[in-house]
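Methods: example folding runs. The two proteins below were folded one after another, and each record is reproduced exactly as written to the output file, sequence line first and structure-token line second.
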Amino acid sequence: QVQLVESGGGLVQAGGSLRLSCTASRSIFSIVAMGWYRQPPGNQRELVAVITPGGSTNYADSVKGRFTISRDNAKNTVYLQMNSLKPEDTAVYYCNTNMRGDDYWGQGTQVTVSS
């Protein structure tokens, strides 16, 4: 098992930046992929970005060129740097991993982008 704790959300104006953090309770990044998801108000949860154990990254088309996923293995922390934020980025952001077929989620952190 692993616990995931997100932080870094908040209220920001359009065009601004935020950096989200997700800290895992133990060292897992070398063996599992880590993902950031988001759930906008009234919508389903969607994948935003993924980083594999080998360091490869993948992004949703809606955030390519604006968001960057990265990790610090020594701190057991994965980050989501969000630049050029838009009102449509408003959502609860969740950290996720899957270990041996079980999904693990953080509690979520709210990101609100005002126009």
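Second run, written to the same file directly after the first:
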Amino acid sequence: QVQLVESGGGLAQAGGSLRLSCTASGSRFSINAMGWYRQAPGKRREMVAVIMSGGSPNYADSVKGRFTISRDNAKNTVYLQMNSLKPEDTAVYYCNADFPGDYRPIRYWGQGTQVTVSS
């Protein structure tokens, strides 16, 4: 059974930094894309950053230049370095990982980690 375990959330002041980590376990297959999404109260879940197995990242416009996604394929781990945090970054952050499926990738999600940025 595939599991994704996140860590690193918490409370930060505006302008501060946090680093999130997410490790996948339970599959012998290589992971395709890994990414981070977030959901603020009353809002829809939105993509924050995604990185392919070859290392190509994509970012939401709202975090470009402030957040950096990276991954360690040997550890099945994805990271999100968040700098210059803003109160509007406050949300529950979820990681995901896409594994190969018979017809399409199978996406798994972590349980979420709270990030709160105070002004």
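Comment on the second run: The longest strand covers residues 91-99.
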